[in-house]
Amino acid sequence: MELTPEITDRLLKLEEKYTAMGQDMGSYLDGLLYADFLTYWDYIHLDTLLSLQNPKTPFPDEEIFIMYHQITELYFKLTLHECRQIAEHTELTAAFFTTRVKRINAYFNALTTSFEVMVDGMDKEQFLKFRMSLLPASGFQSGQYRMIEICATDFNRLVDKSKRTELANASIEEQFEHIYWKFGATELASGKQTLTLKQFIKKYAGQFLQLAKERVATNFSALYLQLQAKGEDVSALAEELRKLDLYVNVEWPLSHYKSAVRYLEKDPVDVAATGGTNWQKYLPPRFQKRIFYPYLWTEEQMEEWGKGWVLEVLKSQRREK
Known about the structure:
By secondary structure, the chain is an all-alpha fold. The protein is built from 17 helices and no strands.
């Protein structure tokens, strides 16, 4: 084979690279000579990935339940990957910020539009049986989802709405004691913390508090206001942040609410969710009124937050029964 000027140039650049690192280029070329070609299945660890579904019961639809939750967590990991790029960018611009939030919105769009798999993609009787083997585990215990919330907004906006004003200037530790999702994991009968919640706090509380402190000035809300104050054009960014607000605080919890109504609502008594979470009060957006970017919405929009969506879900589910 002829050593063209292009190949010679590349070899010289490789030699410069390895010399700068104190390495011998010849040794690396030997490695290339003996290395096998990369395959798709090895690159993404396909065999390992496909071995990670381990149902606890013989019901076939439990495997659907497992795989969809695994897919969800991978999308959350993609989202946190974008969150880090935004927060850690040394010279953040509105354009870069907007592009990355668009990616996040694409991930959540994929999640919300595919959630019909959970609403109608499993046999109801199978679900009500295999879910009992999962106690006290619950999708409530997704640590990555809580991290996304922390990255997206000022921490005080994640405080239960009854305490937000009172704790506006409190420490992160104090605010964490009243974070909204703790009130969604109380025992329906006694009002005590569920084992689901106790497990969750034990595993993740330290990580959540650390991340919240790291993101005081680099959460999406803080960064948006900083760019706006610098005089950057943030109109496109504002539109993407509004979409994110709806995806995370309305569409995603509402998708779960539809699933809960489908599988857990029965007359005369509702079935408790896996882990005992109070899904009737915890999931509907109109009850929680979590809004990441209130300055991007009108008073009327915030007053009506989530109401229309929830009412429509209830109507449609009633019609299907």
